[in-house]
Design brief:
By secondary structure, the chain is mostly helical. The chain has helices at residues 2-8, 10-17, 23-44, 55-76, 82-104, 110-130, 139-159, 165-190, 197-225, 227-233, 237-249, 257-273, 277-293.
């Protein structure tokens, strides 16, 4: 939930950041600052380099959550409102669960899938309704961001079982540091910079809050409770984003928000209580082996 709260501030902070920086400058500076922060922690902890077998997964995390999602959503927010962009995170839990099922071979229960689809549908209908039902020009960016982020979440959650979550995002950020520094130099030379308090604060938050701290606690949580169930907690993120949009950006909160909030929380509760067919199958097989070996219950 700490990760969800941190992520819910990403879109409003990005809008603030765009007041001072161009989209390419904001994304490259965001990743550069987060990488420097992560690199400092890795050096202070004298953390050894990851094993060679982990680098491919770290590259997926870097491409998905460090570069792909921030870039595509930042480009989308130039023409889309934060409420419309919330469609992305409304679909993200379901997409992440699908990626996780394909990647890990786990089979969540039918109750899980029903609650996940229901929660995603509530969020999608709500966000589309409050934005007038019209598709913005940034929709292709948003759906592209959805896919790359789900891949990055899934791979990061898998890696977090082998190494601490902060090291997963830390090494992914460090992996992106050279191209991001070069990109920042080019972007700052091309795009205008108009420094303001909002712009600087937005940049600081998306770098330190969303990219480093948010992903650190998020991957740690995914390693603890599993990728599919952790991803469903993110169904609350669009509604939290709307709260921040009202308080920070001055947008008007739709009257349907409380109803949608209750419906989403019910779906989250259902996914957290649902079983996992893969795990149940493993338990049944273990009980059968124990019984045959004479160690099981009589």
């Amino acid at each position: 939930m700490l990760g969800v709260v941190a992520f819910s501030l990403t879109f409003p902070s990005t809008v603030w950041g765009l007041e001072s920086f161009g989209p390419w400058s904001l994304v490259t500076l965001r990743s550069t600052l987060a990488a420097l922060l992560a690199g400092g922690f890795l050096l202070a902890g004298r953390v050894p380099l990851p094993e060679r077998r982990h680098w491919a997964g770290l590259a997926v995390v870097a491409g998905g959550v460090v570069i792909g999602f921030p870039l595509l959503t930042t480009l989308a927010l130039r023409t889309s409102t934060t409420s419309h962009a919330a469609v992305v995170v409304g679909l993200l839990p379901l997409t992440t669960a699908i990626f996780a099922a394909l990647r890990t071979g786990r089979r969540p229960s039918r109750t899980f899938w029903g609650a996940a689809v229901g929660g995603a549908a509530v969020v999608i209908v709500f966000t589309l309704q409050q934005s007038g039902g019209a598709l913005s020009r940034g929709d292709l960016y948003l759906f592209g961001a959805l896919l790359v982020c789900a891949a990055g979440y899934t791979e990061g959650g898998r890696l977090a079982r082998s190494m601490p979550g902060w090291q997963v995002i830390g090494w992914a950020l460090v992996l992106c540091l050279p191209p991001m520094v070069a990109g920042a130099g080019v972007a700052l030379a091309v795009e205008p910079v108009r420094l303001s308090a909002h712009g600087v604060l937005g940049l600081v938050w998306v770098a330190a809050g969303s990219t480093f701290f948010g992903l650190y606690v998020w991957y740690r949580g995914m390693a603890s409770i599993g990728i599919p169930k952790a991803s469903q907690l993110q169904l609350a993120q669009p509604l939290l984003t709307l709260v921040w949009s009202v308080s920070l950006l001055g947008e008007t909160l739709p009257s349907a928000a409380p109803v949608a909030a209750v419906a989403v929380l019910l779906c989250i509760a259902a996914t957290q209580r649902s079983g996992d067919r893969g795990r149940h199958g493993e338990r049944r097989a273990a009980r059968k082996r124990d019984t045959m070996a004479g160690t099981g219950p009589r």
